[in-house]
Amino acid sequence: MLAFLGGLITGAVIVALTTPKSGPELREDIMDFVDDTKVAARKKVNNMKAKAKNVKTRLRNQIVDKLEEMAEKQ
User: Fold this and answer.
1) Cβ-based neighbour number of residue 21 at 10 Å
2) pTM score over 0.90
3) Angle, nearest 10°, between helix axes 2-18 and 23-73?
4) CA distance 58 to 64
5) Can you tell me the distance from the alpha carbon of 11 to that of 17, in angstroms, rounded to the nearest whole number?
6) What percent of the chain stands above pLDDT 70?
7) What are the CA-CA distances from residue 47 to residues 44, 50, 53 (Å)?
8) Which CA distances in Å does 41 have to 35, 37, 55, 72?
Protein backbone atom coordinates (compact mmCIF):
# COMPACT_ATOMS: atom_id res chain seq x y z
CA MET A 1 0.00 0.00 0.00
CA LEU A 2 2.82 2.40 0.82
CA ALA A 3 4.44 1.71 -2.55
CA PHE A 4 1.15 2.50 -4.27
CA LEU A 5 0.75 5.76 -2.37
CA GLY A 6 4.37 6.69 -3.05
CA GLY A 7 3.93 6.08 -6.76
CA LEU A 8 0.68 8.01 -6.77
CA ILE A 9 2.27 10.98 -5.06
CA THR A 10 5.33 10.91 -7.33
CA GLY A 11 3.18 10.78 -10.46
CA ALA A 12 0.96 13.61 -9.29
CA VAL A 13 3.94 15.81 -8.44
CA ILE A 14 5.52 15.18 -11.86
CA VAL A 15 2.28 16.05 -13.62
CA ALA A 16 1.77 19.12 -11.46
CA LEU A 17 5.29 20.37 -12.06
CA THR A 18 5.20 19.84 -15.84
CA THR A 19 1.79 21.44 -16.34
CA PRO A 20 1.98 25.16 -17.07
CA LYS A 21 0.17 26.86 -14.19
CA SER A 22 0.70 29.88 -12.02
CA GLY A 23 2.29 29.45 -8.59
CA PRO A 24 -0.95 29.85 -6.64
CA GLU A 25 -2.79 27.43 -8.94
CA LEU A 26 -0.01 24.87 -8.62
CA ARG A 27 0.08 25.18 -4.83
CA GLU A 28 -3.70 24.80 -4.68
CA ASP A 29 -3.55 21.67 -6.85
CA ILE A 30 -0.83 20.18 -4.68
CA MET A 31 -2.73 20.94 -1.48
CA ASP A 32 -5.92 19.43 -2.93
CA PHE A 33 -4.00 16.30 -3.88
CA VAL A 34 -2.41 16.05 -0.43
CA ASP A 35 -5.81 16.46 1.23
CA ASP A 36 -7.36 13.80 -1.01
CA THR A 37 -4.47 11.44 -0.30
CA LYS A 38 -4.86 11.96 3.45
CA VAL A 39 -8.56 11.14 3.24
CA ALA A 40 -7.87 8.01 1.19
CA ALA A 41 -5.15 6.90 3.62
CA ARG A 42 -7.45 7.44 6.62
CA LYS A 43 -10.15 5.35 4.96
CA LYS A 44 -7.67 2.54 4.31
CA VAL A 45 -6.39 2.67 7.90
CA ASN A 46 -9.92 2.66 9.32
CA ASN A 47 -10.84 -0.26 7.08
CA MET A 48 -7.76 -2.18 8.21
CA LYS A 49 -8.57 -1.41 11.87
CA ALA A 50 -12.11 -2.72 11.42
CA LYS A 51 -10.84 -5.91 9.79
CA ALA A 52 -8.30 -6.42 12.57
CA LYS A 53 -11.01 -5.93 15.18
CA ASN A 54 -13.20 -8.52 13.45
CA VAL A 55 -10.34 -11.01 13.35
CA LYS A 56 -9.59 -10.37 17.03
CA THR A 57 -13.24 -10.95 17.95
CA ARG A 58 -13.45 -14.17 15.92
CA LEU A 59 -10.24 -15.52 17.44
CA ARG A 60 -11.36 -14.61 20.93
CA ASN A 61 -14.67 -16.39 20.39
CA GLN A 62 -12.89 -19.47 19.03
CA ILE A 63 -10.57 -19.56 22.04
CA VAL A 64 -13.46 -19.19 24.47
CA ASP A 65 -15.37 -21.96 22.68
CA LYS A 66 -12.37 -24.31 22.83
CA LEU A 67 -11.76 -23.56 26.50
CA GLU A 68 -15.40 -24.25 27.30
CA GLU A 69 -15.26 -27.44 25.29
CA MET A 70 -12.13 -28.58 27.16
CA ALA A 71 -13.73 -27.72 30.51
CA GLU A 72 -16.78 -29.81 29.68
CA LYS A 73 -14.60 -32.84 28.89
CA GLN A 74 -12.96 -32.75 32.31
Assistant:
1) 13
2) no
3) 170
4) 10
5) 10
6) 96
7) 5, 5, 10
8) 10, 6, 21, 47
